[in-house]
Amino acid sequence: MNLGAPEIVLILIALVLLFGAKKLPDLARGVGRSLRIFKAETSKMNDDDDDRPTVVQAQQQAQPAPQQIPPAAPAPALSAEEQARQLEEQAARLRAAAQADKRP
Length: 104
Description:
Blueprint: H1 5-19, H2 24-50, H3 55-62, H4 80-102
Protein name: Sec-independent protein translocase protein TatA
Membrane topology: Single-pass membrane protein
GO molecular function: protein transmembrane transporter activity
C-alpha cells in the first residue's frame, strides 16, 4: 500500500474536517498515550510468560530454604512512561481548571 502526497493531503483534510484543527493535537496526544499503554501492557504480558517457573525451578522452590531476613524493599520506581503519563494527566487537569476560570 503506497501512499503518495495527494493521498496524504486528502487524509489530512478529512481529519481537519472531521475533528477540527483545535482538537487534532489532543487527538494525537490521546493516540500516543494509548499506544504507550498498549506497549507497556504487551511487554508485561511477555514478562509474565518469562516468569513462569520451569519444572526444575518448581522443585528448587519446593525444597525448604534456610531462613533469611528479606531486605527492606524500596518503593517501586515509576518507569519513564508512567511518569510522563502522570505529568500529562496533571497538565490536562491544570488546563481544564484554567479554562474553567476563564469562563464567566
